[in-house]
Amino acid sequence: QGFWAGFRLGAGVDGNGLFSPKPYAYTYTAAGREVERKGSVLGLPIGSAHVGFCMAFGEFPQPTIWRGVVLAASYSPAYIGRFEFGGSGGAGGFVGKLNLAGFELSADVAKIEATVESKSQNHVRLAVLVLPKVNRDLPWVVSAGVGAVWY
């Protein structure tokens, strides 16, 4: 059995996009109101820090090699921005806010070698970053992704 636990400290940058058909104009007829919509795209750049803990579950197939899964939970304050492209008024301005309520959950599939020749290797990380709504201009964001992590 190869269980170990650790402290996690890191930083990340995410780029997210969202298509939103916003109401643009209303047309009133005898049958009722019709809504004309124009599509707009929201760019949501996110810069985050991660402070948390991790637990690893795996095995030692050889005395110097550990293979397994590392599960982590982190407090993740983030700076989330919002920039609108298109829509009724063309390009909109950039709005940003610090979100102190974020958190991240992740799982890493890893293989760690403990030899003199071994160097830091990349591994696969599956992560979900959750940022609650902080004001009217910045929505809830749940960002799931696959990336690389180095041990």
Write the layout of secondary structure elements.
Elements: E1 4-29, E2 32-62, E3 65-75, E4 78-86, E5 94-99, E6 103-113, E7 122-131, E8 141-150
Overview of this protein structure:
This protein is an all-beta fold and 151 residues long. 0% of the residues lie in helices and 75% in strands. It is built from no helices and eight strands. A hairpin with an 8-residue loop joins strand 6 (103-113) and strand 7 (122-131).
Summarize the structure.
The chain has strands at 4-29, 32-62, 65-75, 78-86, 94-99, 103-113, 122-131, 141-150. With 151 residues, the protein is mainly β.
Task: List segments where confidence is low: pLDDT < 50 over at least 5 consecutive residues.
Answer: none
Please give the share of residues in helix.
under 10%
Mean pLDDT: 84
Q: How would you characterize the largest beta sheet?
A: 8 strands, antiparallel
